[in-house]
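Quarterly update from the structural biology core.
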Amino acid sequence: MALRAARAVGAIYAGVDLLPAQNGTVYVLEVNGIPGWRGLQEATSFDVAGALIDHICLTHRGRDPARGSG
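Predicted structure, tokenized:
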């Protein structure tokens, strides 16, 4: 659902706020183009910045950033 919401606004990288209702329905509250994840990182001790960099490196390996393609 978060990936679909990000794609719907044309975002490659985004923070998507989801809210589950009592009946099990999940709602997208907002899609943030510049998400803040400090609270997530502090609460979980997960290295969000490191994971993001790893993902970008793996996803874009071999691509020419000046041309936007491989």
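The mean pLDDT is 85.
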